[in-house]
Amino acid sequence: MFNKLIAATLPYMPKKLVWIFSKRYIAGETIEEAINASKELNKEGIKVTVDLLGEFIEDLSQATENTEAYINIIEAFQENKIDGNYSVKPTFFGLLIDEEVCYQNIRTVVAKAAEYNNFVRVDMEDSLCVDREIKLFRRLKAEFPNNVGLVVQAYLKRTLDDLSNMMDMQNGSSKLNYRLCKGIYVEPAEIAYKKYEKVNENFIKGLEFMFQNDVYPGIATHDKNVVEPAFELIKKYNVPKDKYEFQMLYGVTPELRKMITDKGHTMRVYVPFGKDWFGYSTRRLKENPKMAMLIIKALFNRG
């Protein structure tokens, strides 16, 4: 109860206080800080995917600014020879305001990444956005077959059907590429699994479907109870190490991350940065109220 209370009150606390918690999970506010964090991860043999924090814009001028920001990010990361790719949230580019404008904005980002033979991941957001984001992904995949992927969320009851329905995009020279995660948004029980065991079960079913159909999965989890069954599926289907990767958030479960990389599996870390870190940080805590104790400890160990 104490942890949940802290999580609930965090959005109303001073930003300087929240930063004590957040700095572990955010690469920084600037491109330079994100590049430095990515270089450190690359030194450990870990790939990255970079994300400029922010979502749910209110007008399309913000979408234009965000598109320009991502072009600058791609240029900077390529200049610094970062081993990584890019993640985008469609609402950050105007999805809920004008779908066509959003498409054109993200297309511009994907086209820039494609110039460097790189890759953009379209993040999945709440249930209001799922159909729109699949539609967006289909359009991008048709033009940039090897430069774009999608996120799918195991807690949604529709996900296995979505995976099956999107198989028409798979062909010999252009494989589908998904990040499979549990999902973080609060959804009604009619459309989303609520029990931990059911979410994990659906996650493993989705992963097995991908292995069975030669789809490239980014296995995005910090849960050892998902990692171990994933290892078993990799062994069962004799999946080559270049046909999948594990993915984790910056600063989360470093011990589990090391265990995975020590076994020789590819790891990619999601590196968020930007001035709009506050919303991201409060959401992280709401997902895992147990991390509230880290804030308390940080308060008494500031030196």
TrEMBL record:
Cofactor note: Binds 1 FAD per subunit.
Reactions the enzyme catalyzes: L-proline + a quinone = (S)-1-pyrroline-5-carboxylate + a quinol + H(+)
Residue ranges of domain Proline dehydrogenase in the record: 35-290
Gene3D superfamilies: 3.20.20.220
One Pfam match: Pro_dh
Cofactors (names): FAD
A GO BP annotation: L-proline catabolic process to L-glutamate
Keyword Glycosyltransferase belongs to the record: no
InterPro entries given in the database record: FAD-linked_oxidoreductase-like (IPR029041), PRODH_bac_arc (IPR008219), Proline_DH_dom (IPR002872), Proline_oxidase (IPR015659)
Pathway info: Amino-acid degradation; L-proline degradation into L-glutamate; L-glutamate from L-proline: step 1/2
Keyword annotations from UniProtKB, A to Z: FAD, Flavoprotein, Nucleotide-binding, Oxidoreductase, Proline metabolism
Documented EC number(s): 1.5.5.2
Signal peptide feature range: none
This protein's record includes keyword Lipid metabolism: no
Residues reported to bind FAD: M124, Q153, T221, H222
Domain of life: Bacteria
GO molecular function: nucleotide binding; proline dehydrogenase activity
UniProt binding sites for substrate: K89, R283, R284
PANTHER family from the UniProt entry: PROLINE DEHYDROGENASE 1, MITOCHONDRIAL, PROLINE OXIDASE
Official protein name in the record: proline dehydrogenase
Organism: Labilibaculum manganireducens
